[in-house]
Write a structure and sequence with these properties.
Elements (H helix, E strand, L loop, with lengths): L1 H20 L2 E11 L4 E6 L14 E5 L13 E9 L2 E11 L4
Parallel strand pairs: 3-5
Antiparallel strand pairs: 1-2, 1-4, 2-3, 4-5
Length: 102
C-alpha cells in the first residue's frame, strides 16, 4: 500500500510539473525578423471575432539555433510554438500559414 501511495505521489508531481515545461502553440503575424541577431517580433493574432479589431503589441522571441528562416518574412502569418529557455522566450517551431504580399 505504501508503494502505491509513493507511486501515485510521484506521478502527480510529474503531471503537475509538466505544463510548466510544455511548449505553447500560438498564432501571430511576423512584424520584424532579424537574422543577424536571431530574433523575431510577433504580434499575436486572436482566433475568432471577439476583439479581432484590437491590435496587440509585438513580442520579441529568440529563434532556436539551427532553425531556417529563409522563407520567413515580415507580414507573414505563422503558427508557432515557443518555450521559455533559461528565461528567454524562444521559437522552437513554426509554420507559415499565409504569406504577406510582396
Amino acid at each position: 500500500m505504501k508503494i502505491a501511495a509513493i507511486l501515485l505521489a510521484g506521478t502527480l508531481t510529474l503531471v503537475i510539473g509538466a505544463p510548466a515545461s510544455a511548449e505553447d502553440a500560438q498564432t501571430g503575424m511576423v512584424t520584424q525578423l532579424n537574422r543577424l541577431t536571431g530574433t523575431i517580433s510577433i504580434t499575436r493574432v486572436q482566433d475568432g471575432t471577439v476583439g479581432a479589431n484590437t491590435a496587440g503589441s509585438a513580442e520579441q522571441f529568440k529563434i532556436k539555433d539551427g532553425m531556417s528562416t529563409e522563407d520567413l518574412h515580415a507580414g507573414d502569418r505563422i503558427s508557432f510554438s515557443s518555450a521559455d529557455k533559461n528565461g528567454v522566450k524562444t521559437i522552437t517551431n513554426f509554420k507559415v500559414e499565409s504569406r504577406a504580399a510582396r
